[in-house]
C-alpha cells in the first residue's frame, strides 16, 4: 500500500521503516529538512511539500507536547485540518500521536466542516497508539506487545477501513485489540500511567528500604517472582479490594512507615482510592 508518514521523528521513522519492511510504499514528510535529508540519504522516499494524492493511508506522527500541564494538540489539529483540504481520493488517516480521549471524534467534525468532505465516504480516521521505548523504537514497532486499533464507533461507516487496516497489520503476528477511538486514545494514556505508577511504587519501596538498611533488590525480585499473577487477580478492577490480608497489611505498612519517619504517599493514596471504591456511585 502507499503510505504517507506525516512527522518523521522517532515515532514516524520507526513506523515508516517497519511498514516499508512489510513491503509497503512509504513516503516521509516533515517540516524539519534535516530529518528528510537524512532519510533520503538512507534510501527512503521523502516529500518536502505536503500532499497525499494516491495514498491509501496517512499516518499522523506529529508531536503533542506538554504545555501548562496539559497535552498540546494544536499541532496535530492544524495538521489534520490542512490534510482534510488535500483529500482527492478516499484515504484513511491514522493517528499515532498521543491525544486525549474524544480528540478524534471532535477533530473529524472540524475536518468535515473545513473541507466539505464526509467521513465514511471521503476519508476515515483510525487511532493506533504507539507503545515504544525511544532507544529501541524500530524493534518495538516490528515486535510490539500489542496493537490497539481504535475505530469509529459506527462500525458500518468503518467497514472498509477495518478491511484495509487488518490487511496492513496482518503480517505482524501479535494480539490486535479492536475498540472505539475514544477507548484507544485512553488506552495509550492509561498504559503509560500504569508504568509510571509501577515505577513510583517501586521507588516508594526503595526509599523505605534505604531507611531501614535492607536490600531493595531482594524485595523487588521477590515481588516479581509472582509476576504470573499480574495477568489475573492483580489486574482486577471495578470493585474495592477486601479479604483478610490486603486491607490489614496495607494499614499495617502505612502505620509502620509513619513510625520510621517516612510518609508513604502512594500507599496512603491506595487506601483512599479503595475506600472511595466502596462508595463509588458510578461503579454500581
Can you characterise this structure?
- The chain is α/β, with parallel strands linked by helices and 284 residues long.
- The chain has two domains: 2-181, NAD(P)-binding Rossmann-like Domain (Rossmann fold, 3-Layer(aba) Sandwich), CATH 3.40.50; 189-278, Orthogonal Bundle (N-(1-d-carboxylethyl)-l-norvaline Dehydrogenase, domain 2).
- Helices cover 46% and strands 14% of the residues.
- The protein is built from ten helices and ten strands.
- Strand 1, helix 1 and strand 2 form a beta-alpha-beta unit.
- The protein is elongated, with a radius of gyration of 23 Å.
Characteristic terms for this protein:
single chain; 284 residues; alpha/beta; Rossmann fold; N-(1-d-carboxylethyl)-l-norvaline Dehydrogenase, domain 2; six-stranded parallel sheet; two-stranded antiparallel ribbon; 46% helix; elongated
Under CATH, the topology of the largest domain can be stated as Rossmann fold
Low-confidence stretches: none
Global Rg: 23 Å
Mean pLDDT value: 91
The run of helices and strands is EHEHEEEEHEHEHEHEHHHH
In total, the number of strands is 10
List the helices and strands and how they pair.
Elements: E1 2-6, H1 10-21, E2 25-29, H2 33-41, E3 45-47, E4 57-60, E5 66-67, E6 70-71, H3 74-84, E7 91-95, H4 103-115, E8 123-127, H5 137-142, E9 147-151, H6 159-169, E10 176-180, H7 181-212, H8 216-224, H9 246-259, H10 265-278
Parallel strand pairs: 1-2, 1-4, 2-3, 4-7, 7-8, 9-10
Antiparallel strand pairs: 5-6
Q: Brief overview, please?
A:
The chain has helices spanning 10-21, 33-41, 74-84, 103-115, 137-142, 159-169, 181-212, 216-224, 246-259, 265-278; strands spanning 2-6, 25-29, 45-47, 57-60, 66-67, 70-71, 91-95, 123-127, 147-151, 176-180.
